[in-house]
Amino acid sequence: MKVKKGSVAIYVLALMLVTAGYWNYISKETKTLETVSMNQNTQNTNDENLGDATLVSNNEITDANQNTEERTEEDKKIDDYFQESKLSRDTMYSQTLETYQGMLNNSNVSEEQKSIVTQEITELNKEKNAIMICENLIETKGFENCVIFVNVDSISVIVRADELKTDEIAQIQNIVSREMNAKVENIHIMTK
Question: CATH says 69-191 is which class?
């Protein structure tokens, strides 16, 4: 039987391919078996510890809760400051308006004085409205809270923030200057 060299080469090549395929198949089966075995071991380990008590530290949780409580307490004080300040300011305006109204109802007050009081009431209402608009506009710029106090020649703006950037100060000054017809140098901005 004569076998040609070309045929032998083809048979050897085919045998090599079959052998490589067989080794590839065996290695995949081995890896699959190892993975299944590892999963079973992990499951058995988990099952063995099922119901066991595990010691965990709650120090980190306690510290986080404590910081949150302290922060919440501080936030509450700051929120209370803004609410109380606005309430005090509004109470002062109400008392002033009440005094002016009493003067208007008093028969002993001259017509000239009543005219002056009427102008004062109008100005006071404009000021209250401008303050409300300013506070709302400032809050729309991203500040949580603010309160504005007007004195004879100055306006104090207190904003809830850790610090203010130059552009934020400029925004607040622009709002207050525009809405209250105030000069920028008379606007004093503080943080709380």
Answer: mainly alpha
